[in-house]
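Researcher: For the record, we're logging two predictions in this thread. I'll number them. Prediction 1 follows.
Model: Prediction 1, sequence and structure:
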Amino acid sequence: MAWLIALVLALPAVAAVAAWARNDVAARVSGAVLGAATFACCVAAAMVVAGSGPAEVTRWLRVDELSVIFLLATGFLYMVSAMYSAGLLAHTSDDVYRRRLLSGLHLFALAMLAVPVVNEIALLWTAIEVTTVISALLVMLEDTEPALEAAWKYILIASAGLGIALLATILMYFAGTVAFGAHYQPYLDLLARHAGTYPPVVTELVLVLAVLGFGTKVGFFPVHTWLPDAHSEAATPVSALLSGSLLGVSFYAILRYYVIARAAIGPDVPRRTLLGFGIATLLLAALYLLRQGNIKRLLAYSSIEHMGILAIACGFGAPLALAGMLLQVLAHAAAKSTAFFGAGALTLRFGGRDLSLMRGGLSALPWSGSMFLMAVLALAAAPPFGIFRSEFQIVLGGLSAGSYGPVTVMVVLVTVAFFGLALHATRILLSPLPPGVGRAEASPWTLAAMACGVIALLVLGIHPPTDLALLLERAASHLGAR
């Protein structure tokens, strides 16, 4: 396992260096190859954990059933984003932009891959802070006034949130002094094992601060306002990583604090806290999805919607709901990357992100338009894709937990979001092609990246692999499923 984790962290670093190669083709293709190799190592690590249980590389680096789910999601996003970038930058004459985007993309992936691997609360906070710095620079890289404004807004709001998360980290260390004394290393597994000895009031405060602080990066209401701007102004592969992976690994940090708080003070307060944030976030996203004029902002609010669903699922606390939540992490990564790549192809074809410009997408882009449609249907929780399966599990889990009111609210809001996505997708893809817009197709790299996402969605929806199903069950148990 040690060499697998070393490769997971080393390969993106090698790709970041290779991105500065003088040979344009070598820089792009090596990134795609190393991205695929990184995902293969993530899959291998998941198989080891499924067969042998948690693995500790050092006391600072550890993977268990929960962390490996987020490692898989991030590794997959990294692979397909590197593939898409190889096609996107094929005709770029600006070598400086190409090198900066590729190297930043690889370093961003490296920082996100480190989040589920580290086994110490200060390192967890540091890794998420590093993702903020790198992703903000990637948004700025577009060098337009809206992009610079979005990047600064992101930095200010995320920094404030992570300041709150840092306070949660410090108070968590303080709570641990009751069990370990004034000087100790706050390893995540160690803190969880001895959580029953922590002061309840301090632990409750830690949980609320962690949810609010890291929730800024997740996109929880009311600290979500940076997200639509940053996602819409960033380059398409960056938007895919922001939406499909960054939000997920930030939610992973919340889950680690949730595990500790649940063991320390019982399930009621942690569940109610996440349920409240989740319903408010889902309500906001569902309403905003009905009226959007920018295709990437549409997908950004869809991401907020799915983060709300994750929080609600965790709030239900039932084994089936928690397993569905973790399956949703994987399915959302596949669906959102495919949707953003399709949005990128549509933007290039119609000359802008404005939804009013986009008509006849299936005629203009037969293959990528079709896969974009499948991704949107998946995001809307239509069968037979993975998100339908995960949300079905979440609803059943909520009913089994007796949370009839929250389940009803969730189903109503998800239905509203479905109509919002379906309305915009119908206008974009199924209306007549405007005069003067030719028929063409995205690059083979784009089609390959989108095809990977669609295949993953079908596999997750129809029959998840046995080892993956076992990991999801064990991870749900790790979260304290009743």
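Researcher: Logged. Prediction 2.
Model: Prediction 2, sequence and structure:
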Amino acid sequence: MKTLLTIPEELLGTARTLSGARTKSETVSRALQEYVRFLRQDRLLARKGKGFSLSQARLEKLRRMT
């Protein structure tokens, strides 16, 4: 999907260098994947100690998603 974005060149360049991505599109895609992974983990940690538990099957599914 094509999308027009305005991203600071220095930020994109730094992200590209650190990620080892070859293209700007790959850089943005990797960044979004990492962001989604971070949010999922953060939400799980927020539930810790609140009586929340995962079945082994659900835990394995979440691990495969990251």
